[in-house]
């Protein structure tokens, strides 16, 4: 039997008390690969079923196709392509992708290597000599914002304002069943407006220019799919910000936490810097930043593992559970940077597969290599550290480390 109502299990996973270690609960959940909830949400937790669903063309990423649309769905003017289906999704994704790297163009990511290294060095210079640092506030949080500002072409002097908006925006979408979302949502809506207005102004200046930044490229690009409208460019820029920020913060922070819990791997990384590539891949499987895709909508009735999911139902995909599925990965609860067969779900799968994967990987590789090289005998102050509330984007809110 694949479908049961599992009252309690999902609730326990979403409850904050499970945040530090949800993995034993995922193992329980996997006993029912497709689990119908009291509210008719279907929760899918096994690798094969998650992958099947992510490749199923009858599934929609557009909230407007849910029988009960989620909060905030109606407030978006032009949905970003993460919330669209083909053919619109594919057109916008292709238009943005052109600028992200070979084989299409020389690529923004390759060209960003010096900026990434400089930003990391600058942040670590500021930490030098401190007995105690917070890997989140002092390092992992500011890093991706600086990178996205650089990518989009946001001038340095505007970064502080930009960071405040990003903060409010990210907080407003943090899934937290406990707190009343009204105040957070209001702040988020205001931040979204301010950010759109700011990006609109910047875009106006970029029209007709020759800059190499992403806004300039999108504003002036006449690729095979034509040119994005200003509205589409702004939605895309917003999407990159939201999708590329806290995810990267969490991967760097989860990475440092995992290394401090596995000191032999940390020492190895110091001696063998090339280890960082498979190590980051294993982190995406073992301690991924995105634990859950909170919804997909069924366009029509679909069958998953013998269970019929009716049209309009909400489907929740437990990515982090799938990446620990023992039917797919050998010894899945072991952190093993030498693992060869590692097609994890850390970046999702199918047509919405993370678009920023190459950038996120490179940011995290540089961040972890430099943290390990420059911190002097780092040790954890608290284990487990305090976690952010969200069960969707999961990671520590602070990670204090003492040196020396
Ligand atoms: C999509 C994870 C970093 C841009 C996704 C999805 C996941 C994910 C799981 C699939 C969502 C779905 O299927 O609904 C991550 C993780 C990251 C990361 C774990 C960091 C470690 C980034 C960065 C950027 C980015 C740095 C951009 C600068 C996107 C975009 C999509 C996406 C645009 C939507 C793709 C589409 O709809 O076709 N990401 N992401 N991500 N990500 Fe990332």
UniProtKB/TrEMBL annotation:
Q: Known InterPro entries for this protein?
A: Cyt_P450, Cyt_P450_B, Cyt_P450_CS, Cyt_P450_sf
Which Gene Ontology molecular-function terms are recorded? heme binding; iron ion binding; monooxygenase activity; oxidoreductase activity, acting on paired donors, with incorporation or reduction of molecular oxygen
Alphabetically list the UniProt keywords. Heme, Iron, Metal-binding, Monooxygenase, Oxidoreductase
Superkingdom in the source lineage: Bacteria
State the family it belongs to. Answer: Belongs to the cytochrome P450 family.
| Name recorded for this polypeptide | Cytochrome P450
């Amino acid at each position: 039997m694949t479908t049961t109502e599992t009252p309690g299990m999902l609730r326990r996973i979403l409850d904050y008390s499970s945040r530090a270690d949800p993995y034993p609960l995922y193992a329980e959940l996997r006993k029912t690969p497709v689990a119908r909830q009291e509210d008719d949400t279907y929760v899918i937790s096994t690798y094969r079923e998650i992958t099947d669903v992510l490749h199923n063309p009858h599934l929609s990423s557009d909230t407007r196709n849910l029988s009960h649309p989620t909060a905030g769905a109606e407030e978006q003017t032009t949905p970003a392509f993460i919330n669209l289906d083909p053919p619109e999704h594919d057109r916008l994704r292709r238009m943005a992708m052109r600028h992200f790297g070979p084989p299409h163009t020389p690529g923004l990511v390759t060209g960003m290597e010096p900026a990434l290294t400089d930003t990391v060095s600058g942040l670590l210079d500021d930490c030098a000599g401190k007995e105690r640092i917070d890997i989140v506030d002092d390092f992992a949080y500011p890093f991706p914002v600086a990178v996205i500002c650089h990518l989009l072409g946001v001038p340095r002097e505007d970064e502080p304002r930009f960071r405040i908006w990003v903060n409010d925006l990210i907080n407003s979408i943090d899934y937290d069943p406990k707190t009343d979302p009204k105040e957070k949502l209001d702040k988020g809506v205001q931040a979204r407006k301010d950010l759109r207005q700011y990006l609109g102004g910047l875009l106006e200046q970029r029209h007709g220019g020759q800059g190499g930044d992403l806004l300039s490229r999108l504003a002036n690009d006449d690729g095979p799919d034509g040119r994005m409208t200003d509205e589409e460019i702004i939605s895309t820029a917003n999407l990159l910000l939201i999708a590329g920020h806290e995810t990267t913060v969490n991967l760097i922070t989860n990475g440092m936490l995992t290394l401090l819990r596995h000191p032999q791997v940390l020492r190895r990384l110091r001696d063998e810097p090339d280890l960082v590539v498979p190590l980051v891949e294993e982190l995406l499987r073992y301690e991924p930043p995105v634990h859950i895709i909170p919804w997909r909508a069924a366009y029509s009735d679909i069958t998953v593992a013998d269970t019929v999911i009716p049209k309009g139902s909400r489907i929740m995909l437990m990515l982090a559970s799938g990446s620990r599925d023992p039917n797919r990965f050998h010894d899945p609860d072991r952190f093993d940077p030498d693992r060869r067969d590692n097609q994890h779900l850390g970046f999702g799968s199918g047509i919405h597969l993370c678009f920023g994967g190459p950038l996120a990987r490179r940011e995290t590789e540089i961040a972890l290599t430099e943290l390990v090289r420059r911190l002097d005998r780092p040790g954890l102050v608290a284990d487990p550290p305090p976690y952010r509330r969200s069960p969707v984007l999961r990671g520590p809110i602070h990670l204090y480390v003492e040196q020396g």
